[in-house]
Amino acid sequence: MAFSIPERFRKLAINVGLLFVGSFAASFGAFLKATPKETLVAGAISGIAAAAIAGVRAVVGFVALQASGVPAVPVDV
């Protein structure tokens, strides 16, 4: 028996993943350009920040998918 993820949750997962990658790339580039931090430190800080941003987006998207009567919350599906 194969486990199947519903389409709306799959789209949310893709959205959150892309947000993580974009947030990481933007903050990593900014840290490397604007601060004298080493590459490893800048990468770690950027990873933590990107995970926090993507985590908030995942929670908001999950709540919006569960509460279908809340149109004000962005869902992207």
Describe the structure.
The chain is mostly helical. The protein is 73% helix and 0% strand. Helix 1 packs antiparallel against helix 2. It has two helices and no strands. The model has no long low-confidence stretch (mean pLDDT 84). It has a domain at 19-65.
Q: What is the overall number of helices?
A: 2
Radius of gyration in whole Å, from Cα? 16 Å
Question: Structural class, please?
Answer: mainly alpha
Shape: elongated
**Order of secondary-structure elements:** HH
Short description:
By secondary structure, the chain is mainly alpha-helical.
What is the secondary structure topology, with strand pairs?
Blueprint lengths: L6 H28 L4 H28 L11
Give the key terms.
single chain; 77 residues; mainly alpha; 2 helices; elongated
